[in-house]
Specification:
CATH topology of chain B: MetI-like fold
CATH class of chain B: Mainly Alpha
Order of helices and strands of chain B: HHHHEEHHHHHHHHH
Largest sheet of chain B: 2 strands, antiparallel
CATH superfamily of chain A: MetI-like
Strand order of the largest sheet of chain B: 1-2
Structural class of chain A: mainly alpha
Number of strands of chain A: 0
CATH superfamily of chain B: MetI-like
CATH class of chain A: Mainly Alpha
Number of helices of chain A: 12
Oligomer: heterodimer
CATH architecture of chain A: Orthogonal Bundle
Chain lengths: 288, 281
């Protein structure tokens, strides 16, 4: 009778292993080959690709840029998303309307919206500069200088993904127990003290989960960059994924890009694990 | 003091709402412009600031002459997203139920490790998989076909389905299964007759997320198809890099994001009901 349990698990597990694990093993094998556009095929050149990764400053710069971009965008999303979730958590007018409106950007296709954002940030014909001028702040060379282009990408990322943070945090708020709030009310705690001593600690596990989930997704940023700036000007907005894409699918250095992507994957897994541990130590009450 | 707080709160909500709607309104307004209206600088309100024209919208549905084809990419996107979502949800729901109700053990690997294996696939950056997928589909002769994309999207969406459903089944009391089994059902029967009909909210959320991540994917559609099959996001990006005028781009963009936004309004109730809260603890 309990053979039945395999009926449930195996189809999904087999499919996932077949579609993900074999490609991954293949990538590992390819990373030890010199496969490129001139010499396609699996030879063996030892760790030479990885040695090259080590000296590739463009890759490490892209990684640093990605870290700044993903950490800052996720922090902004967290702060804004939490504030919005708190605002529509309790009874307010048009609550349902706000809740669904705040989710809308998440439902839209990132590259499609990036096409629109690119027209918004157009320096002479777009509304971003038009509005800035109207309130007397002058114009910004949005997509043609490094810092401004970086900020444009950041703005689009925050627009696109704050909703996901909002959704996770709102779901968390809705499921909080009521008793601690009664106790706080009896103690006469004001809204700020209630937030600091009740809501925030109760939300700590969800905060950690939401930040990690968003960091995982943010670590893959490349589509917005591809459409809005193509990594430019220069390499000012080039993220790791985008750089690996250039090496692998544009220059067709298959072997080298496999080494790059494995390095990138390992760094992602290690740093996300460390971040999760650190957040847990900072926010969760210590046991025992 | 209380009214002061309230005023600030509504002001903040209003500001954020305008930030959210702005790109849509801008696209809507741009889609009704012509060359004159675009090149004279940023304008917003039709009739008042510029004379509206319907050429942007017309260009999407005039066949051939403008070179913009929205119908085929739309159908392709719908076929790929819906089939991949259905397969992923079927496999994911079964796996999630298995993991939430039975004990599996293979050496040191236990249920939690299998669950983690499923969900952790989301950490895999698309770029890591793109080249092997490319070669794999080439070997199978599935490059540039909807079947190839469906295969890849199933792997992409399966972790999401498992993630949502495992949490959902965790909240359905086991007594329900046991009752069904006392009545003589085997686990498979109990699942289909009792558990599944009670899982509609979970299935809606899982389905919504699968649709979002399937419909909105650009990268795999971009690297794994060329000429025969084109999905919506790829179609619009290729328009973007050619000299397509803003009005056609805007109209195209609005039509392609419309379906999911409409669905979002329909299933809002399910989404914010706390269905994901437990999953990320």
């Amino acid at each position: 009778m309990y053979r039945d349990k395999y009926f449930f698990l195996l189809p999904g597990l087999v499919v996932l292993i077949a579609i993900i694990i074999f490609p991954l093993l293949f990538t590992i094998r390819v990373s030890f080959s010199s496969w490129d556009v001139f010499q396609p095929g699996l030879d063996y050149i030892g760790g030479r690709n990885f040695a090259r990764v080590f000296e590739d400053t463009r890759f490490w710069e892209s990684l640093l840029r990605l870290s700044v971009l993903s950490v800052s965008s996720v922090l902004l999303q967290y702060v804004i998303g939490f504030a919005l979730a708190l605002a529509v958590w309790r009874e307010i007018r048009f609550r349902r309307f706000f809740r669904v409106l705040f989710l809308v950007p998440m439902m839209t296709t990132p590259v499609v919206m990036s096409v629109i954002w690119r027209t918004i940030f157009h320096e002479s014909l777009g509304p971003a500069n038009d509005i800035l001028q109207a309130i007397g702040l002058g114009t910004v060379p949005w997509l043609s200088t490094g810092t401004a282009a970086f900020i444009s990408v950041l703005i689009v990322e925050v627009w696109q993904w704050t909703p996901f943070m909002f959704l996770l945090l709102l779901a968390g708020l809705v499921s909080l127990p009521r008793e601690p709030y009664l106790a706080a009310a009896i103690d006469g705690a004001g809204p700020i003290r209630t937030f600091l001593q009740v809501t925030f600690p109760l939300m700590a596990p969800i905060t950690i989960g939401a930040i990690i989930i968003r960091l995982i997704e943010a670590s893959k940023i490349m589509e917005t960059v591809y459409v809005m700036t193509s990594g430019g000007p220069g390499t000012a907005t080039e993220t790791s994924s985008y750089y690996i894409y250039i090496r692998g699918l544009r220059d067709f250095q298959i072997g080298y890009s496999a080494a790059l992507s494995l390095t990138y994957l390992v760094i992602m897994i290690v740093s996300l694990t460390i971040i999760a541990k650190v957040l847990a130590r900072m926010l969760l009450p210590r046991e025992g | 003091m209380r009214t002061f707080y309230l005023a600030i709160k509504y002001l903040a909500l209003l500001l954020w709402s305008s930030f959210i709607v702005f790109p849509f309104l801008w696209a809507l307004s741009t889609s009704f412009k012509d060359a004159n209206a675009i090149t004279s600088g940023a304008t917003y309100i039709p009739w008042l600031q510029f004379e509206p024209s319907t050429q942007g919208w017309a260009s999407l549905f005039s066949d051939g002459s403008t070179g913009i084809n929205i119908v085929d990419p739309y159908i392709n996107s719908a076929i790929v997203t819906i089939s991949a979502s259905l397969i992923a949800i079927t496999l994911g729901t079964l796996a999630a139920y298995g993991l939430s109700r039975f004990e599996f053990r293979a050496g040191f690997i236990k249920n939690n490790d299998i669950t983690f294996f499923f969900i952790s696939q989301r950490i895999m950056p698309p770029i890591v998989l793109a080249i092997p997928f490319f070669l794999m589909l080439k070997t199978l002769g599935l490059l540039d076909t909807v079947y190839g994309l469906i295969l890849v999207y199933v792997a992409l969406l399966l972790p999401i389905a498992v993630w949502v459903m495992i949490d959902f089944f965790g909240n359905i009391p086991r007594e329900l299964d046991e009752l069904a089994m006392i009545d003589g059902c085997r686990p498979i029967g109990a699942f289909f007759r009792v558990i599944l009909p009670n899982s509609i909210p979970g299935l809606v959320v899982a389905g919504m997320f699968c649709l979002i991540f399937g419909w909105n994917d650009f990268f795999f559609a971009f690297t794994l198809t060329f000429t025969k099959v084109q999905l919506l996001p790829v179609a619009i990006v290729s328009l973007n890099s050619s000299v397509t005028p803003w009005w056609s781009l805007s109209a195209f963009a609005l039509i392609s994001v419309a379906p999911l936004v409409l669905i979002a309004f329909l299933v809002e109730n399910f989404l914010s009901k706390g269905s994901l809260a437990g999953a990320i603890r």
